[in-house]
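ok so for the tutorial part 2 we go from a plain amino acid sequence to predicted structure tokens. step 1 is just haveing the sequence, like this:
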Amino acid sequence: MILCVAASPSIDKLFEVDRVEVGRIHRPSAFVAVPGGKGLNVARSAHVLGADVVATGVLAGHAGRWVEEALAAEGVRARFAWVEGETRSSLSVADSTGRGLTEFYETGPDVGEGWARLEAIVADLLPQAGWLTISGSLPPGAPEDGYARLVRAARAADVPAALDTRDEPLALGVSAGPDLVKVNAEEAGALLGSPIEMLDDAVGAAAEIRGRLGGDGHAAIVTRGAEGAAVVTPQGETLVARLYERGRYPVGSGDAFLGGLVTALERGEGWRSALALALGAAAANAMVPGAGRLDPARAAELARRAEVRPVAFGGRARRPRPSPPRT
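step 2 — the prediction. this is what the tokens look like for a chain of 327 residues:
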């Protein structure tokens, strides 16, 4: 079973319009709403790909009940901590001009003591888990080391943990030594203190992050959108993974990538096969309106076309900044 933590869930809405114009009324030609936020996108993607999944997180109010019911309608098992307020919404607007998405993200409710309830749920479910995924930003009121605490709980239960977040929660989470960190180039650059612009930068960043995690036995992935990903595996192999496919709806593709990756790893597949499925899931997500939605047959077809190859890394990574002590 894959246990997916969504600390800051959202109702993810997608409007499609002919053209976004400032100050004008827009009447969408299509509309999709899904139970989202990064952690739930991971859960839903892995579920569609055939994994046994349980989602958890913090929900609130009428919007939270909608999220819970919509997940159940998709067949995703879930167990949530509840707080006062309302679960947030996120809006993406796609137009036909090819200029990309315009996005609006609300801030979620203050979780307060709900965080302790979430930690208790995770502790209760970890003994049945084969992987723990932790995705997205920390909600207001959560402790800054909240993700690091979940990583340590997973390590104590001997469950591999995958972390995908940013800023201070990422830095603190890395110090706890998760088995896998997956971040995009912007997040990696912020963590390491310099921009990730080229493939060599991404390869060096993945190597540096893996070193901060503890080296052998840990993996790091730096994704670069449609340009693919730089990967250093737990065995120390440096890989570049690419799939030359683009879609109109990229929101949630990074989450689908992680969902596909852990689905394959939990099945016992090797890293190259897992990365191919991750790329196929990410590309399939970008072809369907609504984050975390994908056709599993299409994902499998795209995975067969993925390019995963080793690259030589000559140790040209930037000199690492001192890491926080591991606790």
